[in-house]
Amino acid sequence: MGPHPAVAAIRLAVRRVLHDLLTEHHRTTAALPHEPPPPPLVLVACSGGADSMALASALAFESPKLGIRAGGVTVDHGLQPGSDVRAAEVVLRLRELGLDPVDSVTVTVGRAGGPEAAARDARYTALDTAAERHGAAAVLLGHTRDDQAETVLLGLARGSGIRSLSGMAAVSGAGGRYRRPFLELDRQTARKACMVQSLPVWDDPHNADPAYTRSRLRHEGLPALEKALGKGVVEALARTAQLSRDDADALDAWATQAEASVRDAAGLLECAKLYALPPAVRRRILRRAAIAAGAPAGSLFARHIEEVDRLITGWRGQGAINLPGKVVARRQGGRLVIRQG
């Protein structure tokens, strides 16, 4: 008799990602000298919640069969009393699963962008540092289809455009460091997998705290949508994310190809040539130019780019546009100049 369907589902999802990583590892090491390179190391980011514990258990089960080393990282954000104790418990559970190395990293959460964004930034910085310290080929994240649906709705509420609606990528980060095997699985599957394997899980009280936007969306917004529209909203939103990602990738590629053609010999953007481009392509070029000039990507919103775009499409002699990071965009002699001012 095989494993429970939930356990089989999470293991299959992880196995597919590990196969991809192994293929990439063999491709990059094929030209090395005769000495065989060590097997790749894959880390799992684990909070102790159901999603990440299910992911850790699947990684521990699948990695030995493929000759892959498997470890784990838990991040203590220090935002709740006893968080250090819980982090120590997670380390113990990961080691009991057979993962090695296992790190617990304590971070200081700032305030930039709000509590959720600040915690996320601190967490990813810690994960990047751990991956580099151990030379890990990848870090697995336990985001599920439900998380993807929430991300799409948050992007829709911000009015941030198609890239925001594309949600989380299955592969992201520098060099494809972050992998999300569970984006096609629902949250309940992960929880069920933990239950049938008798894996203890910790439910973060922040996930039920209405002070947090994502928590309100999870416990109030999505249930209200399903009540009004019927079941299947989560699946439809996740599908929207994938379709949006395909469109956004195509537009990004178009913008990359078009950018060289709209610059003059000095590298300045020519307004007339920009005007001739479709708005979606033109605004991507403007956003890249602003970021290249020093505007922080996380602080650069659609409204900023729309204001710069009006220097192209609605020129009436208006003054410079101030952007985050002390970057200034202005129109001069038919050219668009974007630089730190």
TrEMBL record:
GO molecular function, one term: ATP binding
Binding site for ATP: 47-52
Family matches, as InterPro entries: Rossmann-like_a/b/a_fold, TilS/TtcA_N, tRNA_Ile_lys_synt, tRNA_Ile_lys_synt_N, tRNA_Ile_lys_synt_subst-bd
Catalytic activity: cytidine(34) in tRNA(Ile2) + L-lysine + ATP = lysidine(34) in tRNA(Ile2) + AMP + diphosphate + H(+)
CDD domains xref list: TilS_N (cd01992)
Residues of the tRNA(Ile)-lysidine synthase substrate-binding domain: 269-336
EC number: 6.3.4.19
Localization: Cytoplasm
Pfam families per UniProt: ATP_bind_3 (PF01171), TilS (PF09179)
Gene3D superfamilies: 1.20.59.20, HUPs
Lineage: superkingdom: Bacteria
Main location per the UniProt record: cytoplasm
The tRNA(Ile)-lysidine/2-thiocytidine synthase N-terminal domain, residue ranges: 42-220
GO cellular component labels: cytoplasm
Listed GO biological process terms: tRNA modification
Keywords, in A-Z order: ATP-binding, Cytoplasm, Glycosyltransferase, Ligase, Nucleotide-binding, Transferase, tRNA processing
Top-rank EC class of the record's enzyme: ligase
Family listed: Belongs to the tRNA(Ile)-lysidine synthase family.
Written domain comment of the UniProt record: The N-terminal region contains the highly conserved SGGXDS motif, predicted to be a P-loop motif involved in ATP binding.
Known role: Ligates lysine onto the cytidine present at position 34 of the AUA codon-specific tRNA(Ile) that contains the anticodon CAU, in an ATP-dependent manner. Cytidine is converted to lysidine, thus changing the amino acid specificity of the tRNA from methionine to isoleucine.
PANTHER family according to UniProt: TRNA(ILE)-LYSIDINE SYNTHASE-RELATED
Name this protein carries in UniProt: tRNA(Ile)-lysidine synthase
Gene encoding the protein: tilS
